[in-house]
């Protein structure tokens, strides 16, 4: 995803060129927004893995490694809680965008996957309802970007759990 910014720049460049020399296109602004969401949501876990995320270094830099690990372990618990709620909302929103209005998104996806593997893709496609579309003039389906967001949240949640486990090891005195 490091190069996703170039995809967004390409879309915005085409938007500028088409507005200047041709008929303006309707899809460019929304596509740039989708590309930025994918860039941000999928690049976040990678930046945390590399340790390149931004920290407030007012006190943090002068602390010992063990004290940093205690503070990081405490704060990452809040992140995990937040990501769990965000994941629930993302899965619910994705199920809604695929036409599920029952309010039970995990059951909807379990039934969809089971139908796909037992009865085939055609039967699974029949389980989908009226798919949500954007209110813009372009009117793209919204489930692909919502699915990208759910994948990004899951990756961020996995990375947060990894950071928590590393902090626990640092607290116990192990070198990582």
TrEMBL record:
The keyword Cell membrane applies. InterPro entries: DctQ (IPR055348), TRAP_DctQ (IPR007387). Keywords: Cell inner membrane, Cell membrane, Membrane, Transmembrane, Transmembrane helix, Transport. It comes from the Bacteria. Residues 8-168 form the Tripartite ATP-independent periplasmic transporters DctQ component domain. Pfam families: DctQ. Its main location: membrane. The chain crosses the membrane at residues 28-48, 69-91, 141-162. GO terms for cellular component: plasma membrane. It is found in: Cell inner membrane. GO terms for molecular function: transmembrane transporter activity. The keyword Cytoplasm does not apply. It is a multi-pass membrane protein. Belongs to the TRAP transporter small permease family. PANTHER family: 2,3-DIKETO-L-GULONATE TRAP TRANSPORTER SMALL PERMEASE PROTEIN YIAM, SLL1102 PROTEIN. Part of the tripartite ATP-independent periplasmic (TRAP) transport system. The complex comprises the extracytoplasmic solute receptor protein and the two transmembrane proteins. This is TRAP transporter small permease protein. It comes from Halovulum marinum.
